[in-house]
Design goal:
Blueprint (H helix, E strand, L loop, with lengths): L2 H5 L3 H7 L1 H4 L6 H12 L4 H8 L9 H16 L6 H10 L4 H11 L2 H15 L8 H10 L7 H5 L8 H11 L8 H9 L5 H14 L7 H4 L7 E3 L5 E3 L2
Antiparallel strand pairs: 1-2
Helix pairs in contact: 2-5, 4-6, 5-7, 7-8, 9-10, 10-12, 12-14, 13-14
């Protein structure tokens, strides 16, 4: 009899059966912790998928929660390259624990490959409404200051997101890219009457960092200037030191 027969079912089947214990918020924590350890020893992709569900709950006390999540991180890392497909699927489909999924991928892949996954995910999310904008914001923060020609095109549609947090994160990501096709969308967002003031400030920052002029929009932009930003004689947003 194999070890997984003894546990009750094949490896993948047993892994899926442990999900309820992994996501058990109350009761004896050793039940949950034992299930996590069992999954870490299975070495099946299905075990990684179940382990990832531990990131979708928070338990008390918070010190235990943090310790368990860190332990899950180490367990998933132990799967090596076999963990990449289930972690990538989790990142794309789950609205939770985006930071943890990225951290795992960063531990297993070169940065360029993680950027590939994030760009693809941002493209898929660009037209999708999300009640909680955290996932989009985390992904946008990840690509900020990264050097990859695909980033700007993936970020640009998020200027039209309904959540101001997403718009601000997209503007922060676009500024360093100096992506010329982003100039007019940024200016339109800046000068639209219902744009929140904090989004306008982020747009001014993006324009200043990118070095774009405001040609065609100067009359609308001038009343919106606020310290420390100003327009120079060439219609370029500058920042006072």
């Amino acid at each position: 009899m194999g070890i997984f027969d003894f546990l009750g079912g094949s490896g993948p089947e047993k892994a899926l059966k442990l999900k309820s214990k992994v996501t058990q918020k109350y009761g004896d924590p050793t039940t949950r912790q034992k299930a996590l350890q069992q999954l870490g020893e299975m070495k099946y992709p299905e075990a990684v998928s179940v382990l990832l569900h531990r990131y979708t709950i928070t338990v008390e006390p918070l010190t235990t929660d943090a310790d368990e999540k860190e332990h899950v991180f180490e367990l998933i890392k132990g799967f090596g390259k076999d963990a990449i497909p289930p972690v990538t699927e989790f990142l794309r489909k789950s609205e939770q624990a985006t930071s943890w999924a990225l951290r795992i991928l960063e531990a297993l892949l070169p940065e360029s490959e993680v950027v590939d996954i994030v760009v693809s995910t941002l493209n898929a999310l660009s037209a999708q409404y999300m009640r909680d904008p955290e996932k989009k914001v985390v992904l946008l923060h990840y690509v900020t200051d990264k050097k990859d020609p695909r980033i700007a095109e993936a970020v640009l549609p998020h200027l039209d997101d309904m959540a101001d947090e997403v718009k601000i994160a997209a503007l922060k990501a676009l500024g360093p890219q100096k992506h010329e096709p982003a100039r007019e969308p940024i200016l339109r967002l800046l000068t639209t009457s219902d744009t929140a003031r904090r989004v306008q400030v982020a747009a001014l920052s993006a324009l200043q960092e990118s070095g774009f002029g405001v040609q065609g929009y100067r009359e609308k932009v001038e009343p919106l200037m606020t310290d420390p930003y100003y327009l120079d004689g060439n219609g370029v947003v500058q920042r006072r030191s």
